[in-house]
Write a structure and sequence with these properties.
Elements: H1 13-24, H2 36-41, H3 48-60, H4 67-74, H5 81-85, H6 92-106, H7 111-124, H8 127-140, H9 149-157, E1 172-173, E2 183-188, H10 193-196, H11 198-210, E3 213-216, H12 226-230, H13 234-255, E4 259-262, H14 265-271, H15 274-277, H16 285-294, E5 295-297, H17 298-305, E6 321-324, H18 328-333, H19 338-345, E7 350-353, H20 367-370, H21 372-389, E8 393-396, H22 399-406, E9 413-415, H23 416-423
Parallel strand pairs: 2-3, 2-4, 4-5, 6-7, 6-8, 8-9
Antiparallel strand pairs: 1-3
Bound molecules: iron/sulfur cluster (2 copies).
Length: 435
């Protein structure tokens, strides 16, 4: 694609990298075929190619965003299905991140939108804030009809129950069998996940410990920063990124780290992008690159590095039919697809890909909260496709998808790591009690 940035504009590092991305696009439109919003809405501007043109126009002409541009960019799920499809290697992820940040700087959203986005930014990016809001929501749920539609939908999406933690809070979880662990990894426990589903982190820690791997959860790391990053609030996000990078890098230098484990694929995608985000920052360039290199999704780490010790007992000798839901951030963002399926197959169960599995379930970070109508349609389609497999339960690797999909079906849904933990000597997940 021809671009017309001036030399002055190209002195800006973000313009420079976006220009490179734009020049790779040959406007073939293949990406539209696999874009969930283009499929649902049928408008060129609700597909990747149209959005690329909108972003190009804003950046190249140094134009502030307007209502129309914001509408179509906001409707993008950042699912990156278009990146998997694109034959020219267009990095849509970096382009839309730049576009969102430009919108945040140049467009004043209507008051109500600003309030909602600020509430989400404050609530979801800190686990303590999220915990407080979760408790309040529990009490106001019966009175939700008094709230405006958007808030009502948000309240409804909050689960009614929050499982209790069973592991004590520690900085280092040491394997019990051996004195010297075979590896040492840091775990990102996440902001929303540790409130909604603490059992996912616990299964991860227990599983790694049982396989002689030491797990460290450094103090001071909560959110990975992706939430604000995707809301276009790049300054807030960068503060969190820098704090995380500094803490992990210090741990890496002082005590050694073989990997940084993410068990939420949305967060893992952002961690793996820290290196790009700070590519021109002299203070953080080297550190962020190292953190991105160390980051592994738990399924990727287990598949590549751990000889899993599967144990059959009377609790897990029954065979199940599992539908594997590949989160967009996992398959398109991190390009991990086979690893979790390989692991699940090793449990002896039958594992099936969901038809049209490249399409998003509608979760997409805060998308189901901000774009409820589209998210509901995507969820409906996802459930329809899951039911074609007739599974006893669903496995996935992202808390956002777990929350979204469980709002549309009674079929139990678990994190892949909970299943692997169970089949290697851990406890049977609670949601499978009745199976
Ligand atoms: S598939 Fe790639 S090259 Fe073709 S229009 Fe989409 S982004 Fe551009
Ligand atoms: S990220 Fe997803 S929703 Fe956005 S343009 Fe690409 S395919 Fe469409």
């Amino acid at each position: 694609m021809e671009t017309h940035f001036s030399q002055e504009q190209l002195k800006n590092k973000d313009n420079k990298s976006s220009e490179k991305i734009l020049r790779k696009c040959v406007h073939c439109g293949f990406c539209n075929a696999t874009c969930p919003t283009y499929q649902l809405l049928g408008d060129e501007l609700d597909g990747p190619r149209g959005r690329i043109y909108l972003i190009k126009d804003m950046l190249e002409n140094n134009k502030p965003a307007n209502e129309i541009i914001v509408k179509h960019i906001d409707r993008c799920l950042s699912c990156y299905s278009c990146m998997t499809t694109c034959p020219s290697g267009v990095n849509y992820m970096h382009l839309i991140d730049h576009g969102r940040s430009h919108i945040e700087k140049t467009y004043k959203r209507p008051f109500r939108d600003r309030i909602i986005r600020d509430i989400l930014s404050i609530t979801l990016s800190k686990s303590i804030n999220f915990r407080i809001v979760a408790i309040i929501t529990k009490f106001i749920k019966p009175f939700r009809f008094f709230f405006p539609k958007k808030l009502r939908e948000m309240i409804l999406l909050m689960p009614g129950k929050f499982p209790k933690k069973t592991l004590p809070k520690m900085k280092v979880y040491r394997p019990q069998k051996r004195k010297k662990p075979v590896a040492r990894v840091a775990l990102l426990t996440g902001c929303v996940q540790k409130v909604l589903s603490p059992q996912i982190n616990e299964a991860t820690i227990k599983l790694l410990n049982r396989h002689d791997i030491e797990v460290v959860v450094p103090k001071g790391i909560d959110c990975c920063g992706s939430l604000n990053h995707h809301l276009g609030k790049s300054d807030l996000a960068k503060k969190v990124f820098k704090k995380n990078i500094s803490i992990w890098y210090e741990e890496y230098l002082k005590n050694g780290l073989d990997a940084i484990i993410s068990n939420t694929s949305g967060c893992g995608t952002t961690l793996k992008d820290y290196g790009f985000i700070f590519r021109s920052d002299e203070n953080f360039k080297k550190k962020s690159k190292k953190i991105s290199e160390l980051t592994k999704d738990i399924s990727e780490y287990l598949d590549e590095n751990v000889k899993l010790d599967f144990i059959q007992n009377k609790e897990n000798n029954k065979k199940y039919q599992i539908a594997y839901h590949s989160a967009c951030s996992m398959q398109h963002g991190q390009k991990i697809h086979e690893a979790p399926i390989n692991l699940l197959k090793k449990t002896g169960n039958k594992v099936f890909n969901i038809p049209d599995g490249h399409l998003c379930c509608g979760s997409a970070g805060t998308y189901n909260l901000l774009q409820g109508d589209i998210a509901k349609k995507l969820l409906r389609n996802k459930i329809f496709n899951i039911k074609k497999i007739n599974p006893q339960f669903i496995a996935t690797g992202n808390i956002g998808c777990i929350t979204q999909i469980s709002n549309g079906t009674k079929i139990p849904i678990l994190h892949t790591v909970e299943i692997i933990d169970w089949y290697t000597g851990g406890v049977k997940p609670n949601v499978l009690e009745k199976l």
